[in-house]
Amino acid sequence: MRLALFDLDGTLVDRTSAFADAIADLCHDHAYGPEIERWLLTELADHAERSDFARLRAAFGLGESADHLWRVYVDRMATAVTCRPEVLDGLARLRERGWSVGVATNGSSDIQRAKIRATGLADLVDGIAASGDIAVRKPDPRLFELAAARCGTQIGAGDWMTGDNPETDVRGGHRAGLRTIWVTGRPWPEGLTVPHHRVADVPRAVDHLLATPRRRGCFGSPSPRGGAPARRLRRAARGGCSPRRRPPFTPAPPRRPPHHQDRHVCPVPHRRKADVAGSLPRAFAVSVLTASLALTAALPASAEDDDALPAVLPRVETPALYDDEAGGNSDADDPAIWRNAADPDASLVVATAKEGGLRVYDLGARLVQSLAAPAGPGPGDAPGRYNNVDVVRGLKLSTGRADLAVTTDRGNDRLRIYRIDPASPGRPLSDVTDPAAAPVFSADQAEINEQRTAYGLATWTDRASGRTYALVSRRERTTVALLELTPAAGGRIGYRKVRTLDLPSSFRLPNGTSWSPCAEPGELPQVEGMVVDPANGTLYAGQEDVGIWRMPAALDGTPRLVDTVREYGVPGTYDEATEECVSGADPGYGGTRITADVEGLTLVAEADGDGYLLASSQGDDTFAAYDREHGDDNEYEGGFRVAATAAGPDGSEECDGAAALDAPLGRRFPGGLLVVQDGHDDAGRAGDRTATNFKFVDLREVLTALDD
After folding, report:
1. Among residues 193, 190, 177, 268, which one has the least CA distance to residue 227?
2. Contact at 8 Å (CB) between 226 and 212?
3. What is the pLDDT of residue 544?
4. Confidence band, pLDDT 50/70/90 cuts, at residue 79
5. What is the pLDDT of residues 15-53, one digit of tens each?
């Protein structure tokens, strides 16, 4: 039986309106003036205890006993409190579907239970734990554990806490090992772990709970982190299960709230009697209005709750690059991760900067080495421009085996190959490109200058033959080429073209019409982001305005679309005057997960064959994750954003390139690393310069976000 715990005040019931009514009634019954009423409204605003009325009695010399005033207040609150019928119906639906429903609330036992009885909630909950029961308040995990025990169970995988308070309900729920739903309304504190889901009210929370599959490991046992992806359940049903390698659950590090959260929708209808409204002092009413406006302004603009994706935060970021003359026309584009097997702390990130060449960073995102792109061969010829990069392990050269960084030089239509030498920490990369290496696609320099040249890149070592290849796409064309890396004299490396494959540029839609993505005349829908699964030799290629293709890395089979962008099938007309495409009506044939351009494909390859294909959905600043396994048909598994931290790195926008490595990388990233490009780094916002850089994200945070 699954457990759903709920907060009481502000979540299941409307304490705000009931509180104002109860204080007004109490003061009216005892003929207390505005001064006492203001004191009560201020001192009891967050919660009320019996001892508060002892303080009231002492402050104003009242004749009534504190116990009498407390009992009156409890009775008035029970009379005034309300619970929406939709909330009651939602809890009933949960119980009908086999859920155990409990309440975990801060507050005195007598008043909280009086509210529960008065609203009809008592018939719909299996257990209640109030902080007054054991003198422990949320966010202490013991209160959640008591609530579970009173429901006849204990907290386990697939159990949830829903509440409106970020600190006591969300943070407390995380500490107790529960997944959390935040009922939006309060300002979100900086530096607090984000909830697993956000909703406007309890009925939507119930809908989410009922739609969430039970997360268990094999044979129904809890998974190590309190939940396993749905695909693991499917695998168990097929007769096998190998649990994902994950560390025990720990709350994520402090972070900002998500950029998209709903403005507050009061969980219960506002209720106010005319005589109560008249009894409130004008100054208090104005202060309440001011506070309400401030609360609304504090909440960020929102997308739909159900569409919100979890946010992960970068740990560090590289120095900004500037795409102008002063910055050397440097523009961050694509990263690759090289793991130093002998000393993982000394691992490196190699990244392209287009005309700025290559940058090499350590795991603290500090610059280790900068390598310039070569100039064009003659005056007026296109300069070197490094576009994408990948790492090759242990290639056999004439001088012995070596690890390599391979990059596409889009300006010169060639591959550039660099040896990685861990014995030279200050200058780890050295150029070992064979000077005789020919252009990849162009026949001569004039054709190179047209810049329909080597663009995207993925490397691959065929396990059967031991040969190493580079798959290279062509700018503004649909062509992908398979190049074999070939050792040359003196430890140099060249390449030879094996074959090419052309992806479609025109597509037949379900209505019988033909569609091509809108582009400048003469341009075809190009491929850039690519990655090869080394376990089975599968190439995944992102055709930017079309979608993600799957095909044999040997380019000897039929490509298949794994997913399409949302804009797939939308007609467009190129406007010469504005140099923009004008879109027509959307016929509804596109996908729902990625927005053009699809970029930055990378693989989270786990040792057991499980993992994810990650894709940058550049058009909406998100990342989509697909199942790595062919048996699950690369189905969509979720998504995430790389969001800004409170006082450190900003997030990632319009991400071009990404690289993931699911392996220990020393003390900084013991659970692996995700590096993503940021197309709009904050460093450029203060002036007119365009700044880009790379963000380093703990891969464990990404996997936690996807597993949840």
Report:
1. 177
2. no
3. 97
4. confident
5. 988 899 899 989 988 989 989 999 999 999 888 888 999
**pTM for the structure as a whole:** 0.61
Closest by CA position to 5, among listed 114, 149, 115: 149
Q: Rounded to an integer, what distance in angstroms lies between the CA atom of residue 121 and that of residue 92?
A: 10
Within 10 angstroms of residue 521's Cβ, the number of other Cβ atoms is 6
Which tokens hold the place of 219? 């044979």
The pLDDT of residue 686: 62
Q: Which of 13-27, 207-221, 395-409 has the lowest mean pLDDT?
A: 207-221
How would you list the strands of the sheet with 358-361, edge to edge?
Answer: 335-338, 348-352, 358-361, 367-371
Nearest Cα neighbor of 388 from 455, 297, 463 is: 455
Q: DSSP string spanning 377-410?
A: SSTTSPPP-EEEEEEEEEEEETTEEEEEEEEEET
Q: Considering only CA atoms, which of 544, 551, 542 is closest in space to residue 460?
A: 551
Over residues 235-281, the pLDDT tens digits come to 333 333 333 333 332 333 333 333 333 333 333 333 333 333 333 33
Q: Which amino acid is at 485?
A: L
Closest residue by Cα to residue 321 from 680, 618, 696, 687: 680
DSSP secondary structure letter of residue 565: B
Please provide residue 346's backbone torsions phi and psi, each rounded to the nearest 5 degrees.
-95, 15
Determine contact, residues 600/616, Cβ cutoff 8 Å: yes
CB 435 within 8 A of CB 512: no
**Average pLDDT across the chain, whole number:** 86
CA distance 384 to 411: 4
Exposure string of 649-685, with b = 16+ CB inside 10 Å and e = fewer, is bbbbbbbbbbbbbbbebeebbebbbbbbbbbbbbbbe
